[in-house]
């Protein structure tokens, strides 16, 4: 098992060929043979590292490159340099999927798990097919080493699919990248058809002193390596509603309702795909679940002003009014982390409309529970830029117990029986090796959406959480007005994001009907023990619904 602290790129490159195949490709019987759709001939597929490739196979691969790409290189700024190309083709971590017929090389794709501009990626260096494997087409494409052609046989698409599968199974890998000569329009169309588009790091045109614009010879393209990591759950209603008029706005907050049931659940923060699957889809006839992106994150606007949990609670209240969720004892509010702070504020604003108040991994106020030096270091580290892999590793340790991170992936996935879900073309959402790998892939998908996840919004939300403060008197008022039997406080002993001290203190000050300190659990209960967490929420919802009927 791969430790969550081990760099996934280094780990992938350290594997021998057999282990790489076992871990990152389909079962051998699924991929090691291919039948030509026009001739019916069988071809063998194998994977080898560059350093393990026999010299005659390497020479055959080089001749394919030379035959199909030398002219493109000669017309480019860098020129055709056979010795440099051969050296590049023998890079230490480069791997080849070879296509053979009766022992002779007929095509290949070369790839490398690596970092590009600090992003973990699988880079496609070369993909070349002999004329016979291109069907009726006899041109070729290019990649980092530059090459392949649109193929009516489908083999080119299949080989690129294998790269995407490899990328999907290496946690933290965000995308497949390649380089294509711009003059090769057939190649560009081929990649675009597969879903590749211009990468943000593709070179821009140069403007010379005399004003002449010089276009680069090539373009860098990319494709998500796991477009189906985040589940596509279709909402019943959705919109962007203008809030905060007269409070620094207006600006739009994005919201969705999942499910059509009479029981109203309000989820504040947390992981959207997980929090709505059970209640908003599998039990959507019973529950209606409101989820939203708080100001500064996701599809909501990101105004540059001081955020506070009280103001975000007012944003939420305006959306509830917009939806008409205004009845007495109608709302079951589940607040996680900063969302729990917003939920406290909402409870003070509309206590008589709260049927149950569930405060998960949260605090009345963030207090320093470490030494002065450690606290100072932690605060500074929040705002120091880090590589993505290091950042994911650090955050995972704050959110989850290490034992859970290392366990095999145990996520409950949507399936064909789940209402209002869009499944991937394969018909099933992919499994990962470990819980860490699934979380890292989902988190990376979120972070790489530069519109939805912006550092500015993150920092403004972090400041809001840091300034949140509810006094003993305010918590007493909250308990008195909402009703203590309607309140749950839940915290884990391994939570390093908001330490267990805060959960214990909140229970002591609020005296809720249910106060649980769970041994060995971290910050995100709905992921660490989904079944137990869902059952607890169902019990609390039923209990408080029954209380409201008395």
UniProtKB/TrEMBL annotation:
Top-level class of the enzyme under EC nomenclature: transferase
- Answer whether the UniProt record assigns the keyword Ligase to this protein: no
> Mainly resides where?
cytoplasm
What EC number(s) does its UniProt record assign?
A: 2.3.1.257
Organism's domain of life?
Answer: Eukaryota
For this UniProt record, the keywords arranged alphabetically read as follows: Acyltransferase, Cytoplasm, Nucleus, Transferase
Boundaries of every N-acetyltransferase domain copy = 48-219
Its cellular-component GO annotations read: cytoplasm; nucleus
Membrane-spanning parts: none
The record ties this protein, via InterPro entries, to: AB_hydrolase_1 (IPR000073), AB_hydrolase_fold (IPR029058), Acyl_CoA_acyltransferase (IPR016181), GNAT_dom (IPR000182), NAA40 (IPR039949)
Location in the cell reads: Cytoplasm; Nucleus
Q: Please identify the protein, giving its name as recorded.
A: N-alpha-acetyltransferase 40
